Amino acid sequence: MNDPRLAKLLGSADTDPGCDHAGELMDEYCELVLRGEPVPERLAEFVTHIANCTACREDTESLLALIRDEEKTDER
Could you tell me if residue 3 is inside a domain? Predict the structure, then answer.
């Protein structure tokens, strides 16, 4: 499957812990991304979940945007 649109629609067959567990890891994931650090293997299921779950992916993207905006405000 080489079409990213199809992959986004179908999701991944990897282990997906679900929304509740993903919510517990979202802050940690966002902090790592914002610092430019690699995402450790222990967060692999979270990455799978946000690839499969539009709502959690949008929540993660929103949290990242919010933190970036706050950092810009703090720099002023």
Answer: no
Domain that residue 34 falls in? 17-75
pLDDT (tens digit per residue) in 16-65: 778 988 888 999 999 999 999 999 999 998 998 998 889 999 999 999 99
Maximal CA-CA distance, the chain? 45
- Give the chain's length: 76
Query: Within 13 A of 26's CA, how many CA atoms are on the CB side?
Result: 21
- The answer to whether residue 2 is domain-embedded is no
d(C-alpha 29, C-alpha 61), whole Å: 11
| Torsion angle of C-alpha atoms 18, 62, 39, 11, degrees rounded to 10 | 40
